[in-house]
Description:
- Helices cover about 35% and strands about 10% of the residues.
- It is α+β, with helices and mostly antiparallel strands.
- The chain has a three-stranded antiparallel sheet with strand order 1-3-2.
Amino acid sequence: SVLKGGRHTYYGYPLLLREDAPFSRDAFTDYLEEKGIETRPIMGGNLAEHPAFSHLKDRAGELENAQAIHERGVFFGNHHRMHEDHTDYIVDVVEDFLAKETNV
Length: 104
């Protein structure tokens, strides 16, 4: 939901692959990229893994959720020129990938 007085930019659609997914994030994103769909890891993820923070000795625990996003998070970009046919194409390609990878 959007806060009163605010507005959402909807710049991307994030996904988090299940830990027990029968495929890797790389296999998923490679397939989408081959089909002309750009993907990116979810920005941020576990910032404690970023080299800029390597000098910090103390962390706030194991950061399990941040690590999950870091390892399995991906998003599709969105922009003002995307239309329903673009999103339908993304859905079709994702469904094709899942059918091939999960034998559905």
